[in-house]
Design goal:
Elements: E1 4-8, H1 17-26, E2 31-37, H2 49-58, E3 62-68, H3 76-81, E4 86-90, H4 97-106, E5 110-115, E6 133-137, H5 152-165, E7 171-175, H6 180-189, E8 193-196, H7 198-202, H8 206-214
Parallel strand pairs: 1-2, 1-8, 2-3, 3-4, 4-5, 5-6, 6-7, 7-8
Helix pairs in contact: 5-6, 6-8
The chain binds D-xylitol-5-phosphate and zinc ion.
Length: 217
């Protein structure tokens, strides 16, 4: 299974965003992770559509949009129009999960269902044959720079086993507290798309840091 690194620009220097994106490209980062928070679903507010539009104009990178918002259905068309390639939304949100997956696919994008650390992993099993990716949050969503929650490893393992058992081709993404130390454990548990913000942006050599997430050193 191929491993991918998705860089969370929540940890980027916003006034230098164009240069930060160039740095991601030069460091051969696979995807750009764009965290959208509405201040209601989570206790933080980040950035939204106008910023995504400018990011889209600045790069051909795969834009991996993580919606931490109360009513994702209302905004799928807008995020599609503004250049998202992958949209992750939370199963705990107020929208109908199956309907949101369908709408994302109707717009020609890849769909992922995300779950908070406290949400049982079995809740996503019935959607596995319909999605491209499952996002297992490895910290409580809301802020970058938090510590990895080790108990989430069991959820990664359980969802990967279920995907294998069903013979499906679904990516498993992890997000929160991913660094060189935690990456090996999440990969061993079955994750293959690793989101990383603070670790990558703090690294002196971003390309080497990304490599340390993809493969054993
Ligand atoms: C948290 C966000 C994450 C976060 C990851 O709610 O969804 O994407 O930016 O940041 P680090 O890698 O610093 O934990
Ligand atoms: Zn995220």
């Amino acid at each position: 299974m191929k491993n991918y690194v998705s860089a969370s620009v929540l940890s980027a220097d916003m006034l230098e965003l164009k240069n930060e994106i160039k740095k991601l490209e030069k460091s051969r980062i696979d995807m750009l992770h764009f965290d959208v928070m509405d201040g209601i679903f989570v206790d933080n507010i980040t950035f939204g559509l106008p910023v995504l539009k400018q990011v889209r104009a600045a790069t051909d990178m795969t834009l991996d949009v993580h919606l931490m918002i109360t009513d994702p259905m209302k905004y799928i068309d807008s995020f599609a129009d503004f250049g998202a390639d992958i949209i992750s939304f939370h199963i705990e949100s107020e929208s109908d999960t199956a309907a949101v997956i369908d709408r994302i696919h109707e717009r020609g994008l890849k769909a992922a269902v995300a779950l908070r650390p406290a949400t049982p992993v079995e809740s996503v099993f019935k959607y596995l044959s319909d999605v491209d990716m499952i996002l297992v949050m490895t910290v409580e969503p809301g802020f970058g720079g938090q510590s990895f929650i080790p108990e989430t490893l069991d959820k990664v393992r359980a969802v990967r086993n279920k995907i294998t058992e069903l013979g499906l081709d679904v990516n498993v993404q992890v997000d929160g507290g991913i660094n060189a130390d935690t990456a090996a454990a999440v990969r061993a548990a079955g994750a293959n798309v690793l989101v990383s913000g603070s670790y990558l942006f703090a690294a002196a050599d971003m390309a080497a840091a990304a490599d340390s997430l993809r493969e054993d050193r």
